[in-house]
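Sequence in, structure out. Go.
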Amino acid sequence: MKSELVRMLCRKSFQYSEEAIFRLVSGRMSSFYVNCKPTTLSPRGMYLTGHLVFEAVQGQRIAGVGGLTFGADPIAVATAFASELKGEPIQAFSIRKTKKDHGIAKWVEGDLPPGSRVAIIDDVATTGGSTVQAIERARNETLEVVKAVILVDRQEGGLDNIRQHVPDVSAIITKDELLAAWKRMNG
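Output:
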């Protein structure tokens, strides 16, 4: 499954140039860009992503998976669906970028009781900033964050930064794996 997802990400979500032509959120320029949404929103991409992330959290008594909207949302939904297919249901949840100012003002949307053990997920980690923000907001809503799973690690220090907030952090795919596959496919 992983090798198929790597190839799909290379086709749909990964761009590479010898020169640093891609502007990142940080403002920094990079020679590659990863936008996972074309992959994670496709039927096969959802299937592969959901199963791989479920495998990464399976057996850890996780009640929910989610992260900062919008990058984490399709991954959370795919993981919840895969968990049901495997007979070990895990709830999906979403963390807002801005707090609701009406109704019950809260950061997290989903069906999780306070104190639930959760994994924070994200599609791409560069510095890990959005994942750390999601961890903090989940904890503000009294969720117990016990793990973080990143779909694509850009290998620029993000996982180390996330580990300062939750020790159990893993990535499904690394930039090195994507770049090697991209070069094989576009050689």
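Check: The domain at 36-173 is CATH 3.40.50.2020 (Rossmann fold). The chain has one domain: 36-173.
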